[in-house]
Backbone:
């Protein structure tokens, strides 16, 4: 039995990753090994603390609201207790965050093997994780704001890690500015909630706003909060920063997408879900935003020419699904469905990103021409890739299937009961399920694509097998070329599909510096993620998650599976005969080009927000200049006036007398006139 | 006709006046005393000031009267403000005498100069307490006419020019004042400043008009003494030409006398109402603007201080643009603060002029790096300039500026308040220019001499005064009943 002593594991969950950030920057100067040791140890300790907390929670020993730095002295009328809030859902999410963060730290060591700024990256990942854990465990809106803000800054650093590249810098600025733009209403909303309740404590806020009588104010505040959530979670209309954020190193993408920043919106909304359930306007706003996002992102994912961007859009789509799961909740329900999907998404998305990162190192890029057939050439990642994509598509019995179909079922259930929000959500989810199946199938077909040469060779092998009786085995073994374990002829690898010669040189040059696969601990971490992606659905059976898995509608599930199968078949047919096995090649070129640019969202940002703001700033600057000129003129006027004064004072007594006379006349006239 | 006498009350005027005669008699008996006459003069002035101290204490009766006629009209009356100004005049004259002491002058000239300073100080002290037009006019001229001689006795070309300028303008202004006094007499039919005749004249339209015109003439005449623009033209010439202690006398003691005269008049003018005082507001605005603007380009130390006087005179009369019980005290309070800071500045200039030669003190440039070369002098001058600019740490200057502005703002004279605020800004630029020189590059004088201990003592006392009053401005302002 673990006693709840003076040290709360919940605090350690936040403190260890933060210590990684601080210690790495303070102690480590050059040594990569030392930085790695701190990062790995800190990540491991963070995970162990989370597990400790989880075990406390299971046995019921966990302190429900541990204090952090003590209440801020704000006087009697407004309380800032700064407590954490521990319950089953948050503890599980914290564990998942710690796990994903640890695996990413282990993987980064290999991925950034020759990056001189590895130290900074590891420190930022640690800080970022700490910020996310603070948001997850916080029971106080002020702590949420602190973590939220810290995440914004860290995401800027991570995305712009390769800051010598113009595109990376722009992506970092874009991510920061877009989320910052959305943060303004978010902060306003949270502050409004806190001011209304005279406390920043979330239980106090929920207790205050749950009393009837301020529906309008509540809806307004919640819509503000939803704005901020849409910004961090890359939902419409703030969706376009996320795919650009792919300019960051792949581990950073994995971290941002899998368990931290993008999921933070869901975490915060699930914290105040009792309020959300009471406000129909807020639910409608949320369901519309999430529906549009999930469908639009699904379409865009299918159109991307870069598999990393495909995964990015799929994240937008999946987070949309989580938010849908929050919006369809009836009053009194708990946000378990959304959190459940958050967890499974964290596992398979981290897995997918790390696997794609691995492959990209081997083939030298993530665009479709390079990725085409990558698994054929590097089969070591194929299990991970397959599990990740199947889980993402929601194929039974993987974790994605369980969490997604529970949401589908709930939406259908609520829609049938007459809830408008759930009906909108249900339609969006069905479309989204089909789109998810489509882009997952497409990704798999690209990765598993065989070039014409490979196919011909396979056909040759079959043909040869027909004639095998005519040759003696011994003779054949002597004359034929040596083959590897899979029966492939051992010879210099054939030139790849496109421009493969250069690529191979690059690959070989890289391979010389870096081992061809991640270290053992990183592979162990990836295996854990794979395993969890497979069996994660079993969490639905666990007592800590409160979902109704026994009464699901079997027909509905069968129908969705059928839909997915049909879509997958269609995609397979579309991919036939294309160069890279890319089904999207059948889509008209104009649509694909537009899709690559996110349907022009970036241009819209620049034209609708960027330019007007700049114009306003310029006009303010001009106005300021005008005022400034007045002040500067005062100085130069005084200066020239003094010159004229010098000329007038020519030191002759007559001048003085003249001035005196004038003064006398003026004074006399003034006196009489004024009177 | 019997008149009451209260010698103790009259002492601040009588002591320096009799002292002037005494000085001449001593010179007759002991012709070789030479510069020691300055010490005597300072002692006599401080003795006169000592008689004024009991009246200036917060518990003293106010106003006190003497020289009262049987019909209860009194020819001599002082209130807190008046006695404060008497103190300021006598003490500043004593400081001038001490500043002048180390300076070499021909032996026979020292008693004359000392007697003249004493005479002028007596006049300054007397005008603050004048109860009738006649003595007011005489005292005012006694306070100012000796300055012409004081300037001229330096016997250099510049001094003669300055004295000439002073004399011409002085005569014209006396003519104007006499004209004003005559019209006043015509309008009220009497010479008493607070008599019933004044009230009666104010009620009759015809005589009221003459009375207003009389006031205008008197204000114009006094504006000359206060060196308010456009009656200021003598100031830079006279101050620039005179020896530095006499310059200090011109811009401090003379100013105190003129303000005392003006306050006596303003007290009577209240019956005429705001329009008369509005003219003072206009003069204040013009004066502070012109003074600041001219000081902005000035390269000579003494002329800089003269222009600074013109600007500060504007600040002094600024509160008088309104009719309120506090405006007199505000004006007197501002004048006292200004006097202290200006005396310190002049003390530093005199000390340097005496030690390193006049050439090393008359150009602003030659003060380069003073704070490092002579820390005490530099600190004192720097603090004095900050007080004049009204910038912390010269808090007392800031308090004085607020004091001067508050009646104006209180009466919603926004135009005047805005002009004053702009000038406060300009003033900062003016004084910081000199301050920057003090803090800036070192300028070694051609011949470096020793600072005379009397000068050092005076500068130290002034510095202490500025520091103490910056911590507790009330100490200084309370001598005028503020």
Residues:
């Amino acid at each position: 039995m673990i006693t709840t002593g003076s040290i709360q594991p919940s605090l350690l969950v936040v403190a260890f990753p933060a210590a990684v950030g601080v210690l790495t920057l303070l102690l480590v100067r050059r040594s990569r090994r030392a930085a790695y040791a701190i990062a790995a140890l800190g990540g491991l300790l963070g995970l162990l603390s989370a597990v400790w907390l989880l075990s406390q929670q299971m046995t019921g020993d966990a302190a429900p609201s541990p204090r952090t730095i003590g209440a801020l002295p704000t006087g009697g009328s407004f309380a800032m207790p700064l407590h954490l809030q521990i319950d089953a859902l948050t503890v599980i999410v914290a564990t998942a965050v710690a796990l994903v963060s640890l695996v990413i730290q282990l993987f980064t060591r290999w991925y950034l093997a020759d990056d001189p700024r590895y130290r900074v990256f590891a420190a930022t990942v640690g800080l970022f994780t700490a910020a996310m854990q603070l948001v997850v465990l916080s029971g106080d809106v002020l702590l949420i704001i602190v973590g939220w803000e810290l995440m914004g800054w860290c995401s800027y650093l991570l995305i712009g890690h390769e800051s010598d590249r113009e595109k990376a810098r722009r992506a970092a600025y874009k991510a920061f500015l877009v989320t910052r733009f959305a943060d303004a209403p978010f902060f306003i909303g949270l502050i409004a909630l806190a001011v209304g309740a005279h406390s920043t404590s979330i239980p106090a806020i929920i207790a205050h706003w749950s009393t009837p009588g301020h529906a309008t104010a509540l809806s307004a505040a919640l819509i503000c909060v939803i704005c901020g959530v849409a910004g961090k979670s890359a939902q419409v209309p703030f969706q376009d920063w996320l795919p650009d954020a792919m300019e960051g190193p792949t581990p950073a993408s994995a971290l941002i997408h899998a368990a931290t920043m993008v999921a933070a919106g869901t975490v915060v909304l699930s914290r105040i879900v009792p309020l959300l359930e009471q406000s129909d306007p807020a639910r409608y706003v949320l369901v519309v935003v999430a529906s549009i996002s999930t469908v639009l992102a699904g379409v865009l994912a299918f159109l991307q020419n870069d598999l990393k961007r495909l995964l990015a859009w799929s994240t937008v789509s999946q987070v949309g699904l989580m938010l849908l799961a929050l919006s369809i909740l009836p009053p009194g329900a708990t946000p378990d469905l959304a959190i459940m999907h958050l967890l499974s998404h964290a596992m398979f998305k981290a897995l997918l990103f790390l696997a794609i990162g691995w492959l990209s190192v081997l083939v030298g890029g993530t665009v479709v021409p390079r990725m085409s057939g990558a698994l054929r050439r590097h089969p070591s990642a194929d299990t991970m890739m397959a599990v990740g994509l199947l889980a993402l598509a929601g194929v039974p019995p993987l974790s994605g299937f369980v969490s997604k179909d529970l949401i589908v079922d709930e939406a259908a259930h609520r829609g049938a009961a007459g809830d408008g929000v759930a009906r909108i959500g249900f339609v969006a989810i069905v479309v989204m399920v089909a789109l998810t199946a489509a882009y997952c199938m497409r990704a798999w077909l690209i990765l598993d694509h065989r070039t014409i040469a490979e196919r011909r060779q396979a056909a040759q092998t079959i043909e040869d097998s027909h004639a095998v009786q005519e040759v003696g085995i011994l003779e054949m073994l002597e004359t034929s070329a040596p083959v590897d374990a899979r029966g492939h002829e051992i010879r210099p690898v054939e030139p790849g599909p496109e421009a493969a010669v250069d690529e191979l040189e690059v690959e070989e040059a890289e391979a010389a510096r870096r081992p061809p696969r991640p270290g053992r601990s990183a592979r162990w971490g990836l295996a854990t993620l794979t395993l969890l992606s497979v069996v994660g659905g079993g969490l639905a059976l666990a007592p800590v998650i409160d979902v109704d898995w026994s009464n699901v509608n079997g027909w509905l599930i069968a129908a969705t599976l059928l839909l997915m199968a049909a879509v997958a078949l269609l995609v397979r047919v579309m991919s036939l005969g294309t160069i890279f096995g890319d089904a999207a090649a059948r889509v008209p070129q104009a649509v694909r080009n537009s899709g690559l640019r996110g349907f022009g969202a970036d241009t819209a940002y620049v034209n609708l927000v960027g330019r007007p703001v700049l114009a306003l700033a310029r006009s303010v600057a001009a106005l300021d200049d005008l005022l400034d000129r007045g002040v500067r003129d005062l100085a130069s006027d005084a200066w020239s006036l003094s010159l004229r004064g010098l000329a007038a004072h020519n030191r002759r007594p007559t001048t003085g007398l003249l001035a005196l006379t004038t003064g006398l006349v003026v004074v006399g006239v003034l006196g009489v006139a004024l009177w | 006709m019997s008149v009451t006498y209260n010698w103790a009350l009259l002492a601040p005027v009588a002591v320096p006046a009799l002292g002037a005669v005494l000085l001449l008699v001593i010179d007759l008996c002991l012709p070789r005393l030479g510069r020691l006459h300055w010490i005597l003069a300072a002692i006599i002035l401080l003795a006169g000031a000592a008689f004024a101290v009991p009246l200036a204490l917060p518990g003293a009766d106010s106003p006190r009267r003497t020289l009262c006629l049987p019909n209860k009209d009194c020819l001599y009356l002082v209130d807190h403000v008046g006695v404060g100004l008497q103190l300021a005049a006598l003490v500043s004259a004593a400081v001038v005498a001490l500043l002048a002491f180390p300076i070499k002058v021909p032996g026979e000239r020292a008693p004359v100069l000392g007697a003249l300073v004493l005479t002028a100080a007596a006049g300054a002290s007397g005008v603050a307490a004048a109860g009738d037009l006649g003595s007011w006019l005489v005292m005012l001229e006694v306070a100012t006419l000796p300055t012409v001689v004081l300037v001229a006795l330096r016997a250099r070309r510049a001094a003669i020019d300055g004295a000439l300028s002073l004399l011409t303008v002085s005569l014209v202004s006396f003519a104007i004042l006499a004209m004003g006094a005559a019209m006043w007499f015509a309008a009220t039919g009497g010479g008493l400043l607070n008599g019933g005749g004044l009230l009666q004249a104010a009620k009759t339209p015809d005589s009221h008009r003459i009375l207003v015109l009389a006031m205008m003439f008197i204000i114009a005449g006094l504006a000359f003494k206060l060196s308010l623009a456009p009656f200021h033209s003598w100031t830079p010439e006279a101050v620039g030409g005179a020896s530095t202690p006499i310059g200090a006398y011109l811009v401090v003691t003379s100013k105190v006398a003129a303000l005392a005269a003006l306050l006596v008049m303003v007290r009577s003018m209240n019956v005429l109402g705001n329009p008369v005082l509005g003219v003072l507001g206009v003069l204040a605005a013009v004066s502070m603007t012109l003074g600041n603007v001219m000081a902005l380009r000035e390269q000579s130390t003494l002329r800089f201080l003269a222009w600074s006087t013109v600007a500060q005179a504007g600040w002094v009369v600024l509160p008088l643009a309104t009719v309120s019980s506090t405006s007199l005290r505000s004006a007197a309070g501002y004048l006292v603060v200004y006097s202290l800071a200006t005396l310190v500045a002049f003390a530093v200039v005199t000390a340097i002029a005496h030690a390193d030669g006049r050439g090393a003190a008359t150009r602003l440039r030659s003060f380069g790096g003073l704070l490092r070369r002579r820390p005490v002098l530099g600190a004192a001058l720097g603090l004095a300039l900050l007080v004049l600019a009204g910038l912390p740490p010269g808090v007392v200057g800031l308090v004085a500026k607020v004091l001067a502005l508050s009646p104006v703002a209180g009466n919603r004279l926004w135009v005047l308040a805005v002009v004053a605020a702009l000038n406060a800004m300009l003033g900062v630029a003016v004084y910081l220019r000199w301050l920057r020189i003090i803090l800036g590059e070192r300028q070694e004088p051609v011949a470096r001499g020793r600072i005379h201990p009397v000068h050092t003592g005076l500068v130290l006392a002034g510095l202490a005064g500025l520091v103490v009053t910056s911590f507790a401005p009330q100490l200084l302002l309370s001598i005028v009943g503020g």
Notes: The CA atoms of residues 124 and 257 of chain B lie 4 Å apart. Strands of chain B lie at 64-68, 74-78. Residues 273-482 of chain B form one domain.
